[in-house]
Amino acid sequence: MKKLEERILKEGRALSKEVLKVDSFLNHAVDTKLMYDIGEEFKKYFENHNITKIFTIESSGIAPAVMTAFLMDLPMVTLKKKTSKILNGEVYQTTVHSFTKDSDYELTLSKDYINSNDKVLIIDDFLANGEAAKGAARLVEEAGAKVSGIGIVIEKSFQPGREILEEKGYDICSLARISKLDKDVIEFIEE
Ligand code: 5GP
């Protein structure tokens, strides 16, 4: 997505060879018009996938997911990050390792918001090692539902997330694919 790549080049900052900061339009301040355009792109890619619900992971996935859900006229659910296990049988939970915080959390979904007929599109802001997306997919599949796609705003293609998710057979649409990150260097995969 050209407009997104231009914005990343203009305002993104590589904190290291592995972490990109895009606080000015995605992770802290949110450019709602850009989020709308991102929603249009995901809609274009996924509109014939028979999606019934859009899931995201709190908190930076919410903005792109809400626009996509609005444009596709679908319900949206935010998966919650809890610090401890809930043992009441009303939720699905799975442990996920956070790339940015280097700690674990319990990704949590209430059983009220999924059923076995659902075909779910998972949307997240970044794809690095694939832990967050894999965790979301585990919850969907534990409920007997299907993961019908994964939409990523910024994929760091030099990290293994995409390969891991593709091996599991998921259909992934990433709107910007970064091939190299370093101080003052942000390069994209030519598509
Ligand atoms: P993964 O689970 O694929 O290893 O990492 C994805 C999650 O970690 C995303 O939900 C995102 O919040 C966070 N993340 C991974 N890499 C980056 C990055 O370079 N910048 C920012 N801002 N977040 C990242």
Describe the structure.
By secondary structure, this protein is α/β, with parallel strands linked by helices. It has one domain (2-188): Rossmann fold (3-Layer(aba) Sandwich), CATH 3.40.50.2020. The protein contains 6 helices and 10 strands, in the order H-E-E-H-H-E-H-E-E-E-E-H-E-H-E-E. It has helices at 2-11, 23-27, 32-46, 62-72, 131-142, 161-167, and strands spanning 13-14, 20-21, 53-57, 76-82, 91-97, 104-110, 119-127, 146-156, 172-182, 185-188. The chain has an 8-stranded mixed sheet, sandwiched between helices. It has a two-stranded antiparallel sheet with strand order 1-2. A hairpin with a 5-residue loop joins strand 1 (13-14) and strand 2 (20-21). It is globular. The protein starts with a helix and ends with a strand. The mean pLDDT is 97. Bound molecules: guanosine-5'-monophosphate. The site of guanosine-5'-monophosphate has 17 residues, from strand 7 and helix 5. Belongs to the purine/pyrimidine phosphoribosyltransferase family. Xpt subfamily. It is an enzyme of class 2 (transferase).
